[in-house]
Description:
By secondary structure, the protein is α/β, with parallel strands linked by helices. 45% of the residues lie in helices and 10% in strands. The protein has helices at residues 3-15, 19-32, 37-46, 50-63, 67-80, 92-158, 273-284, 304-318, 337-347, 383-389, 397-400, 402-408, 416-421, 449-462, 485-499; strands spanning 228-233, 242-246, 254-260, 288-292, 325-335, 370-374, 435-440, 467-472. It has an 8-stranded mixed beta sheet with strand order 1-2-4-3-5-6-7-8, sandwiched between helices. Strand 1 (228-233) and strand 2 form a beta hairpin. Helix 2 (19-32) packs antiparallel against helix 3, helix 4 (50-63) packs antiparallel against helix 5 and helix 8 (304-318) packs across helix 9.
Amino acid sequence: MPLSETLAQASKLIQSGEKQQAIQLVMPLLRDYPEDPRPWAVLAMAVDDPTKKRQCLEKVLQFGTEEKMLAWANRQMTALAPEQPQPTSVPQAERLQLDSAATERSAQDASTRTRGSGIGLTVLAFMLILAVIGVAVLIVMTIQRRGGLAAMMGQQQVGQVEAPTETTEIPVRHTPWPTRTPWPTFTPRPADTLLPTRTATPTDTPTPEPTITPTPIKTAQPTDVPMENRDLAYATVSDAEKLDLFLALGKGPFPTVIYVHGGGWFSGDKINPTSEIMRATVLENGYAFARLNYRLSGEATFPAAVHDVKTAVRWLRAHAEEYHLDSTKFAAWGDSAGGNLVAVLGTSCGVGDLEGADLGYAEQSSCVQAVIDWFGPTDLLQIQQGYDEINCSARTKDGFLSTEIQYLGGPLDQVQDQIVAANPITYVSPDDPPFLIQHGTKDCTIPPQQSQLLYDALAPVVGADHVTLMLVEGLDHASTWFHKSPNMESIVDFLDTQFK
């Protein structure tokens, strides 16, 4: 999802009062675009704390170039300035009394100053008289000294000898300034290095230096792998076969949430506002987060997308030790068409025709241990009945299902086998993982009947305590309610129940 669209989504959340959701959406942008003033401006609108708001506005003023944006930031900064105290008004009568009292105090001060001035002049005159007397005494003493000096000078002239014609120089010893020892050069220690091993204190009897485990500087991730890993190729058939992997705080091994995007199997991308909110939520709660792209129907028809998703899971499991993942705790999360793909992933563990083993890592399992299905299609043969149940009269079977026809490779009446194979209900078995299914009751893109069908197939087989269906009253397809705080908390609760 382009930056501008993500910021627009965040602005809508702010306008609707969902500031916390907007903050979660914008925070990853600050890491990706640290010198772009626009995410800082949106964050300034979302935060309520004056100190944080001021910091965001300072970033806007630092990186911004547009006059309108800079003017807006300056206005916001001015609005944050503390109010100056206003002078307190004094009634007229009280003001006259105050003025009268002030006049009296001024008169008293003037009288005091006059008395002080008289005393000061008297002291000054006395000091001048003493000075005159002192000068007179000094003159008398000087005259008397001159008579004695004259007599002495006469005696010296009688016995005077010539002084030497050459003056003897007094040797002057020049001691240079000592050379200043230069300051030692300070080399900062890299943040990812360990503290040095402590040296033992020497004693009379030599003893071997004790072995002390170096104390590592606290890190937010394992020291041998970065927290963010983007566009990792899990297969090589298509440029689309890439995934992003983000690690949580700590050293792992991390349970991992794998996101599969929607878009009718013909569009969409792993980077979108929904995935950014998912990413922030699961990382905050101690899970690693992977999101992947797959071959869309314009490039390859069913089962290519399923093969790609399963290969991505196998790739993650093969690299679990390298990235500190817990390969026994994988959850798949998808919306719309992605919901269908994660549902198939959850029910078809071990189905050879859907593995796509030739893409790589065939020795690894593609099974997942939990599934979160947001409003995904299941049985396309019954979808028209689902439209009718909620009065989606404007929807026509052939018109709306054009994307499904493209995905499956032909008209529905000609691809019956593909419809059955793309239906997660086909593969339901007792060893399927726990499912959380959510759907809006007014969804005229994928009717809620599709999720009801999946629940009705799973519950008797895996047990009603292993599958949950939440039909949310009045919501349309992909409503923003699904990724707001209350529901995201229920998602985390579901994951924690399975993995913690």
